[in-house]
Amino acid sequence: MKTLIVYAHPEPRSLNGSLKDLAVATLEAAGHEVRVSDLYAMNWKAAVDAADFGEHATSPLRVIPSSGAAFDAGTLTADVRAEQEKLLWADTVIFQFPMWWYTMPAILKGWVDRVFSFHFGYGVGVHDETHYGDRFGEGTLHGRRAILSVTVGGPESHYTDRGINGPIEDLLFPIHHGILYYPGLDVLPPFVLYGTDRITDGEFEDAAKRWTERLLSLETATPIAFRRQNFGDYEIPSLRLKEGLELPGRHGFGLHVRER
């Protein structure tokens, strides 16, 4: 297995840093190839601007056509092209980050904004009466797997159906479904550590054991059963789930997960 770890934390000695290091050591010991994109160490440029597209930048700047034209010409900036090449190389992608303000750190969102460019991460495939582009289960990254390894400061009870922050599945849905599944990645259930602001050595040992077990099962774990866009579940072009396909009691984001 070839694994890319996209790591977003400014402190190498952090819990996230330890989990990233454990992933590298565990996977390499099991005979897998590993590459790491350490975004803070790379001084990753998070903001999209005209400089990303060079001579293909429109004036005034329109990011989508500029991005697509630069991708098609092979002239996106070297840092972006390198990350796209890593994604195409990988069988599995691990995203290691702390949850800040209910989502990923800005530097990681900026990685997505720039690397998942038009004609690479989106805007691929044909659009007609029965097919609305290659996305949500199809696309450039189809056939690869992804998993989020997320640290959360608050206790697990805060991230449940009746918890004040809402279910963790709902908070991660925009990342799981809208960022990872959209360009075709199969998304594995996340590895989430709660109460990390006060984690003890003993709790870390337990967490490390559980993370190791998850790492060694990445090739065989069952992905989240998101519905594929172009395979009959959705009306096209409205992309509304067809009546009668919802599971009993399912609503909101849960409508887009099918029963196996």
From TrEMBL:
One Pfam entry for this protein is Flavodoxin_2
The record's EC number reads: 1.6.5.2
An annotated GO cellular component: cytosol
The record's top EC class is oxidoreductase
Provide the Flavodoxin-like fold domain boundaries.
1-215
Per UniProt, the keywords (alphabetical) are: Oxidoreductase
Gene Ontology molecular function, alphabetical: NAD(P)H dehydrogenase (quinone) activity
Q: Which family does it belong to?
A: Belongs to the NAD(P)H dehydrogenase (quinone) family.
What PANTHER family has UniProt attached to this entry?
A: NAD P H OXIDOREDUCTASE-RELATED, NAD(P)H DEHYDROGENASE [QUINONE] 1 ISOFORM 1
Return the protein name.
NAD(P)H dehydrogenase (Quinone)
**Annotated organism of origin:** Actinoplanes octamycinicus
